Amino acid sequence: MAERRKISILVLGGSTHGNRGDLAMQEGIVWSLQQYLPEARILFYAFNPEETEAVLRVKAELSPALTLSTAWNRETPRSTWQRLRAIGRAAVFWAQVLVHRWTGWRMTRQESRRKFFHELASAAAVIVPGSGAMNSYWWHDWFYPQAFCVVAARLRGVPVILTSQGIGPVFAHALDRWVARRMFRNASMLGVRDAEQSFRILKDLGALQARCVHSGDDAILMPMQSSAAVQAFAHEGLIAVNFRDSSTYQKGFPKPALPNFARALEIILQQDDRAHMLFVPISYNAQDDDRKPARGVCSLLDEKSQPRVSVVEEQMHAQELRALIAAALCGMGISYHFLLFCLSSNVPALGLFANAYYEHKTTGLFQLYGIEEWLVDIRQGVDAESLAEKFARLQAARGEITAHLHRRNAELRGREEAFRNQMIGLISAENRSRQSGC
């Protein structure tokens, strides 16, 4: 009987992979639930459950979302037919959920679905952790499958909580907008990480409700963690840098301008004798390993600059990367989570974006912090002199910006704590309701 009364929470995650920002969001929501509800049973649905169990140290199962994903090919991003087929699969999935709810019959041979239906019957909540994939770019393997699972949970009568979401860029296809409305209107709570940026898109979709609130980013829930590896990079004039090649994300995204970026770093180093630049990777994935462009930039530096620029080659946990970034005087980079780790640690930073995807993410983050003037558009390439000049102005204003970030982070922490308390209250109330109905 005691086991039956235990709060059951299902987390609809994705893959445990080499992007430390994405991984930190998954780690953060699990850690937070364990802190607030230590007695809860957490079941994490993942695309790679064995690895997820080892990394997150939580029970994991194969996600039913995998049975709803669409294989990618060059035509996938624009294909209406593939979208319609995906929605057709979802309709069957939803019918199976309703049949199971009314009759107890699991009308499918797919094991991941059968287990999911069984767990939904006793779950107090389904949580969809953070991502930057709620958009048309990733409709086929993330946005649609997760949306279909959200609707399924609501059909089963289970509350759904989305947290730490970055919504958009704007949904480009009519069917994407239809699916988005289904998903967001079915959320019992919808927590976004960039406030007004996501709220504008939700309003345009007709899905902005009172339950849509700022949740913050779950990647910064866990405390920072220093280590010998972090201490080894300590430097009095440390400047944290991140440069990402995201050209493989979508057709038409440009390759980064490494020579011009290298020249900008040389100018910055010439202007500041104390400075030491450190490339801090956030992604170790083969597709967008941040160390690759970092090495490319370093190979292009002049002999005088090379000894003053380093790359963190060793793979670190997100909590270590945050501690490393927090020790920097200033930062400059492309990765969303690199910039989040800077700003949430009161480290002034320039936010660079080279395509529409990162323009949306980075603009939302800098608007949240009220520092849009420190955005840099490099879609047409890097102007070395202009970038170095803007970074010099950032350094000159460091004290003022740092004080502003201190105040803003205090405000955001209050809002984020309120979201978590509301989330825990909803889960606890649902669990009490289910127990009283047993």
Secondary structure layout:
Elements: H1 2-5, E1 8-12, H2 20-36, E2 41-46, H3 49-56, E3 59-62, H4 80-103, H5 111-120, E4 125-128, E5 131-134, H6 139-155, E6 160-167, H7 174-185, E7 189-192, H8 196-205, E8 212-214, H9 228-231, E9 238-242, H10 258-271, E10 276-279, H11 291-300, E11 309-311, H12 318-326, E12 330-333, H13 336-344, E13 349-353, H14 356-369, E14 375-377, H15 384-396, H16 398-436
Parallel strand pairs: 1-2, 1-4, 2-3, 4-6, 5-6, 6-7, 7-8, 9-10, 9-12, 10-11, 12-13, 13-14
Helix pairs in contact: 4-6, 6-7, 10-11, 10-15, 13-14
Structure, described:
With 438 residues, the chain is an alpha/beta fold. The chain has two domains: 2-222 and 413-436, 3-Layer(aba) Sandwich (Rossmann fold), CATH 3.40.50; 228-396, 3-Layer(aba) Sandwich (Rossmann fold), CATH 3.40.50. The protein is built from 16 helices and 14 strands. The strands form two sheets. Strands 1, 2, 3, 4, 5, 6, 7 and 8 form an eight-stranded parallel beta sheet that branches. The chain has a six-stranded parallel beta sheet with strand order 11-10-9-12-13-14, with helices on both faces. Helix 4 runs parallel beside helix 6, helix 6 runs parallel beside helix 7 (174-185) and helix 10 (258-271) packs across helix 15 (384-396). The termini are close together.
